[in-house]
Amino acid sequence: MTCNTELEKKAQEIFQQLKQKDFNLTNPERMKIPQQEMPSQDPKVRARNTKEVALGYTETQAIVEANRCLSCPTQPCQQGCPVHLPIRDFIQLIAKKDYASAIAAIKTQSLLPAVCGRVCPQESQCQKYCTVGKIFKNAEKSVAIGRLERFVADWERAQGTAAVPTIKPATGKKVAIIGSGPAGLTAAADIRREGHEVTLFEAFHKFGGVMQYGIPEFRLPKSIVTKEVNALREMGVKMIPNFLIGRTRTLEELFEKDGFDALFIGIGAGLPNFMGIEGENLIGVFSANEYLTRANLMRAYEREKSATPIAISRKVAVLGGGNVAMDSARTALRLGAEEVHLIYRRSENEIPARIEEIHHAKEEGVQFHFLCNAKRILGDDKSRVQSIECLKYELGEPDASGRRSPIVIPNSEYTMAVDTVIVAIGNRSNPLIRQTSPSLAFNKKGNLICDEDCRTSNPRIFAGGDIVLGAATVILAMGQGRKAAKAINELLEKEP
After folding, report:
1. What CATH homologous superfamily does 4-159 map to?
2. Which of the four CATH numbers 3.40.50.1820, 3.40.190.10, 3.40.50.300, 3.50.50.60 does domain 174-270+429-493 have?
């Protein structure tokens, strides 16, 4: 890992070269500018604290990186962005040091740039389509769109210049938003801008959904989430916590008793999956949801301040290979684990987590065990986790998802001593809303069935995010929130 001082020195050298040419470069010259590495905390230090790992570009780095953009007329990068950010335009503005206009351009399509710039999987979305990356045949060499988005969002926050979006005159229409995750926040903002009264209901005591309870502080500081939530309050969105749909009120009661004209459901997929293996009921086995919620939402990592109980572990096994598994493994280190083992049944080529997260986890000391999986969890005479028995795998033909199927190697069992097991193999939707909402249609997995406009089987109820897509990303949920908001605004506009 290159030290941050060295990164800035290299950026300054390139900046001076660009300045000598008055930033008038041909495309071949731009292609020679190396992608700017993200400054970060030293791995040995950050593995034991909860401060943000990635420190953000310096101004020099941002200008240099922005000058790598070829300003393609067709803007292929925009194809991969679920909310269709004006990527080329805001990057050109950063290159000109016009940061105020750059953030204004982003906010025409997204009110969560500081979040998206940190946690979106850009390498599989906007950067996947970047011409620079295509020329190098490597998305990792694309223009660092997400890092530039983060830079300009952080700049605005540091300036304290964020403006409240313009709200149209009141229409007298009322819309309820169920869930305050990225889908709900996005829908609330777009609907409120049109002058409708918006009330946001959240089951937890804090707002932000998965950004609050799921994504760790070291990847997404909660102060940023709070800032984005407060922006909605300033727009006049009413926010009601500790409100559980299906218990506090049913969807039908929101229409009949509270007089809402339309509803948007963005409650995510918060019910964890388990493997169904022997020993999952032992003391020391956790779902990633519970483990991360205790650590993030309830700040269990602040042991001296928080009364939230959480396992004190020495040797931890995390089952899974997605971003949630990476978050769980890296959180376990920060909670004091001596060893953290991540167990994934496919090879590293198939692992679904972001490349950056895998890289950071390895730097911090997480030990990866590919092509193996848990067979059973073994306990002691007090029903506490003592070890985990694993099987080795090899890869066969591709499955329905296109990834090669893992096949068990017979008689390959081996045992690993651990005292904690975290199961991070995905989530499904909570059945409560299905049980209390007879007017809605669900698929076999328990997800809401919607049309292209995110409209459910009830024409006045819309939905988006993980409750529709299954476990997805922040930006995909935001994309659905925008689409649903557009449909709701059009519905209400037609009515007197």
Report:
1. Alpha-helical ferredoxin (1.10.1060.10)
2. 3.50.50.60
CA 107 to chain centre: 18
pLDDT recorded at residue 1? 57
Q: What CA–CA distances, in Å, run from 231 to 102, 163, 250, 279?
A: 19, 9, 28, 46
Burial 243-260 (b: 16+ CB within 10 A, else e): bbbbeebbbeebbeeeeb
Count CB-CB contacts under 10 A for residue 354.
20
- Provide the residue type at 450 as one letter: C
CB 165 within 8 A of CB 247: no
Q: Which residues of 362-388 are buried (b: 16+ CB within 10 A; e: fewer)?
A: ebbbbebbbbbbbbbbbbeeeeebbbb
pLDDT of residue 201: 98
Q: Are strands 385-398 and 414-417 parallel, antiparallel or unpaired?
A: antiparallel
Q: Could you tell me the end-to-end alpha-carbon distance of the chain, in angstroms, rounded to an integer?
A: 62
Joined together, the tokens standing for residue 100 give 């105020």
Fold for domain 272-426?
A: FAD/NAD(P)-binding domain (3.50.50)
| Mean pLDDT per 10-residue interval, the chain, length 496 residues | 87 94 91 95 95 97 97 94 95 97 94 94 93 90 97 95 89 97 96 97 95 94 93 96 95 96 94 95 96 87 76 94 96 96 96 94 98 97 97 92 90 97 93 91 93 96 94 89 97 90
Q: Sheet harboring 367-370: ordered strands across?
A: 285-287, 420-423, 315-319, 339-344, 367-370
Query: For residues 419 and 380, is the Cβ–Cβ distance under 8 A?
Result: no
**Rounded distance between C-alpha atoms, residue 252 and residue 255, angstroms:** 5
Of 196, 119, 118, 193, the closest CA to residue 152 belongs to 118
* Closest to 81 measured CA to CA, from 114, 120, 133: 120
d(CA 193, CA 54): 33
